[in-house]
């Protein structure tokens, strides 16, 4: 799925790195606990979260993620946007809640893990 | 043998917002060295969790990353409160973190297990009231 499709499906606002909207991503995860993301995620390129602090950007950077979606219209700080730009990570903000946002992407084919049954 | 490439950092224990800065720099440096992405990811996640721990549990410390021919070594040294029971601390889900830390996205008790999971070698030396030194290695071969 293209990141631009995620933006459309979630009626999301693009906060930065618009030039990367054409990138393809194949799986996503949703969490507010960064250690869980660091523990269980493998090759998921999209992080959906309700947490807003610099550690969200650094966690995504550590995991080589391409896009972060902030749910419930949470807005990242200027400092977070700077960090995301440095790491070339697309930031999106959607008014939808976590459960709904994840459900929409999942039912449109963006799975939790690329490998079946894993 | 050529001298090892070494990166050294002071990790500020005052400011949670800055935690992880050293790990981001290490990741960028390792990328420039052209190391395999999977190796870089394992090193930087392990270091990031360790760096966060130094900030939230130990009031900061020092971090050092050495790139050897056959492995990358991460050494994290702090003069914090130390870990009383290392075996217990290593268990998934064990955490002494406050609710404030949890509301910041950490304190799930997954840090030390993650560090173990992503590295090929991990050694914790800790003394209550003195501090903690963690050495981790990721093999390059
Ligand atoms: N550098 C450290 N200094 C003192 N205590 C530590 C340090 N690192 C870890 N700990 C202790 O080990 C526990 C488990 O660490 P970890 O697995 O990273 O979980 P978390 O950081 O989420 O609490 C911590 O809650 C803390 O009590
Ligand atoms: Mg931790």
Overview of this protein structure:
The complex is a heterodimer of chains A (118) and B (141). Chain A is 36% helix and 16% strand. With 118 residues, chain A is α/β, with parallel strands linked by helices. Chain A has a five-stranded mixed beta sheet with strand order 1-5-4-3-2, with helices on both faces. In chain A, strand 4, helix 4 and strand 5 form a beta-alpha-beta unit. The longest helix of chain A is centred in the last third of the chain and has 10 residues. With 141 residues, chain B is of the alpha+beta class. Chain B has a five-stranded antiparallel beta sheet with strand order 1-2-3-5-4, with helices on one face. Chain B is globular. Magnesium ion (MG) binds next to helix 2 of chain B.
Mean pLDDT rating of chain A = 93
CATH class of chain B: Alpha Beta
Distance between the amino and carboxyl termini of chain B: 16 Å
What fold name stands as the CATH topology of chain B? Heat Shock Protein 90
CATH-assigned fold name of chain A: Udp-n-acetylmuramoylalanyl-d-glutamate--2,6- Diaminopimelate Ligase, Chain: A, domain 1
What proportion of the residues of chain B form beta strands (DSSP E)? 25-35%
Give the oligomeric state of the chains in this entry, treating copies of one chain as homo and distinct chains as hetero. Answer: heterodimer
**Biggest contact:** A-B, 21 and 28 residues
In terms of per-residue confidence, which ranges of chain A show pLDDT below 50 for 5 or more consecutive residues? none
Total number of domains of chain A: 1
Roughly what is the average pLDDT of chain B, rounded to an integer? 96
Approximate helicity band of chain A: 25-40%
Structural class of chain B: alpha+beta
Helical percentage of chain B? 25-40%
The CATH architecture category of chain A equals 3-Layer(aba) Sandwich
The percent range for strand residues of chain A is: 15-25%
Question: Looking at this structure, what is the CATH superfamily of chain B?
Answer: Histidine kinase-like ATPase, C-terminal domain
């Amino acid at each position: 799925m293209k990141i631009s499709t995620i933006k459309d499906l979630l009626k999301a606002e693009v906060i930065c790195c618009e030039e990367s909207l054409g990138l393809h991503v194949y799986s996503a995860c949703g969490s507010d606990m960064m250690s869980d993301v660091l523990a269980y995620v493998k090759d998921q390129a999209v992080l959906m979260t309700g947490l807003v602090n610099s550690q969200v950007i650094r966690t995504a950077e550590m995991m080589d993620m391409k896009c972060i979606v902030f749910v419930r219209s949470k807005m990242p700080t200027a400092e977070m946007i700077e960090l995301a730009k440095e790491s070339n990570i697309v930031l999106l903000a959607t008014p939808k809640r976590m459960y709904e946002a994840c459900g929409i992407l999942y039912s449109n084919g963006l799975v939790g893990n690329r490998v079946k049954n894993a | 043998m050529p001298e090892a490439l070494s990166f050294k950092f002071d990790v500020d224990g005052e400011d949670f917002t800055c935690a992880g800065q050293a790990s981001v720099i290490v990741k960028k440096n390792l990328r420039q060295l052209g190391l395999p992405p999977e190796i870089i990811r394992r090193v930087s996640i392990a270091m990031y969790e360790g760096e966060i721990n130094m900030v939230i549990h130990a009031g900061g410390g020092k971090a050092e990353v050495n790139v050897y021919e056959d492995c990358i070594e991460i050494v994290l040294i702090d003069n914090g409160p130390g870990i009383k029971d290392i075996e217990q601390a290593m268990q998934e889900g064990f955490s002494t973190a406050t609710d404030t830390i949890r509301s910041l996205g950490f304190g799930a008790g997954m840090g030390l297990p993650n560090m173990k999971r992503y590295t090929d070698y991990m050694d914790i030396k800790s003394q209550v009231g003195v501090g903690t030194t963690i050495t981790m290695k990721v093999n390059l071969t």
